[in-house]
Specification:
The protein is an alpha+beta fold. It is 33% helix and 22% strand. It has a seven-stranded mixed beta sheet with strand order 17-18-16-15-21-22-23. A six-stranded mixed beta sheet has the order 3-2-1-5-14-13, with helices on both faces. The protein has a two-stranded antiparallel sheet with strand order 4-7. The longest helix is centred in the C-terminal third of the chain and has 27 residues, at 377-403.
Length: 502
Amino acid sequence: MSGTHIGALDQGTTSTRFVIFDQDAHVVSMAQYEHRQHFPRPGWVEHDALEIRDRAYDAIRRALNRAGLTAGDLAAVGVTNQRETTVVWDKTTGAPYHRAIVWQDTRTDALLKALAGDEGPDRFRAATGLPLATYFSGPKISWILDQVPEAARAAREGRALFGTMDSWLIWWLTGGPNGGVHATDPTNASRTMLMNLDRLSWDPELLDAFGIPAAMLPSIRSSSEVYGHTRADGPFGGELPVAGDLGDQQAALFGQACYQPGQAKNTYGTGCFLLLNTGTRPVPSRHGLLTTVGYQLAGQPAVYALEGSVAIAGSLIQWIRDNLGLIASSPEIEDLARTVPDSGGVYFVPAFSGLFAPHWKSDARGLIIGLTHYVTKSHLARAALEAVAYQTLEVFDAMTLDSGIRLKELKVDGGMVHNELLMGFQADLLGIPVIRPRVTETTVQGAAFAAGLAVGFWNGLEELAGKVAVERIFSPTMDDLNRQKLYEGWRRAVNRTLDWVK
């Protein structure tokens, strides 16, 4: 191993950043660039994959320049990504056949209802751990092949490649049309509805059901191994191993050092994602959760997880800023919410693209209820923050029922955990301590950990766990009676959002 630092590329829903860590897992340098969100029709969400590639390159170059480092100073680079967002591109040119279809997109709803047939949304759950939902990649690939004749023709001729954003970026970093490596890992593959969860391989029956040629798909490798090397003519300006790959929420699980069964984390980002390590055996869900791969180290069995996915969290605060104009910047929401002692009886259910876990109702739509003359914009701000905590509580309860584990604490990360009003209310609703680490952006840290393990920069999970320091613990103060009363109001509000779209 050479190099004194580790780099990690974090390709998220709204931005891409590159972060450089030292041996002690301290951040040495970071650069971040946003990309545009495209909403061509109601319920459709798209990204320009080439713009994302370019922003990733910009972030790499800028972070290296800020630190005065070169490719030779990095032992390896890891990648983490928004997971189900789908790209189909030409392997000879690198040109996408369509904009990337984002995980929040709902255009495949009719296709999924047809696939469900008499067997219902759990038709493929035994093989994949997932319900039929617009969230996942497989239906998005089918839509592109159905709607874009050029993509369908290229797929038949063996020229089309599919990837989530990890595969797209690894392919470009390792050469693109000139020998780029087409790979993914089990955490991302488990979100496609195309991988058999037990065998960790693409399932021919699932590919046939979705009409997807196997030749389009990346090879499934472990989450921590050397996939290939960057090129001298790329953004690093030299060669170094690309050695870690994890979907963003699994990367946060790994970066939070949740290496033992029964440990859990919740990430508060664009959406909210609660993952529980269930060990080397997948645990089926009967209460609306997803069974997924948590991570897999090279040469070792996969570690599985239960996941509850909430579509709208931080993006709700952006919506209040951009669409309602109640605040000028996202951090202002806490100050506005603190001007009132509670939400004034208001509940805000942000079912903008339907409801994810534990409901999985694509026909739900957003709702604000409980309005009176007393209510001000401060109450709306507080209700929006509380909505994030209520959605997490729903997932928490479902996870307890599925796993039989009553969590004693919850590790948290993501941009919203700096909102102390939210974190305190979350601890109150859950009735357990909420633990905020010193490095709250553990998604990118998890990608760095995976890459570092692959090349011997760090020597094992025990060493990595020692790198994760606690910054603050939020302890619950709310009594059970008040908690139950508030939760009952939330559940009544959620019920009123259902079956809105006919």
